[in-house]
Amino acid sequence: MNGKNIIKYREDNGISQIELANELGVARSTLSRWEQNKTVPRGEDYDHLRKIIGDEYITDEDLTEDKTAIEAIEVVSDRVDNILFQVTQIESNQRSFENEDNKSKLKHRRIRTVAIIVTCIIILAIVIGTWFYLMNYGFGGDIVEGSVGIEDVDD
Q: Three-state SS across the chain?
């Protein structure tokens, strides 16, 4: 989210930073960091901000980052579904293998299928792990305010 959009919304509606922060249920300093593009709202904060300021203050560019991660997860999910379908077909066709040669082929096919499934699960875990890392730490490696799974700690 571009912080300039939040500032523009406040200016267009004559709302102070404190008033908007209170309406969002966040600290004024958090809203200030969003406006300065030091951090970005994530998760529920992003959804709540979007509901309050409206889509006209959200650019297409803001939605691209989340869509890319979701699309990557959907692609991996589709591949896993395809593999599971193939496994089901293999298991239903295993009765047709009658001699030792066919049993050996079936064993190799099962090993290959299990290896493919394990590989897909690893790829899915990497994609999800990368997505959560970027949601929490961004590209710079610093903890992002409002991150998924990060709770505020009072000192």
A: CCHHHHHHHHHHHCCCHHHHHHHHCCCHHHHHHHHCCCCCCCHHHHHHHHHHHCHHHCCHHHHHHHHHHHHHHHHHHHHHHHHHHHHHHHHHHHHHCCCHHHHHHHHHHHHHHHHHHHHHHHHHHHHHHHHHHHHHHCCCCCCCCCCCCCCCCCC
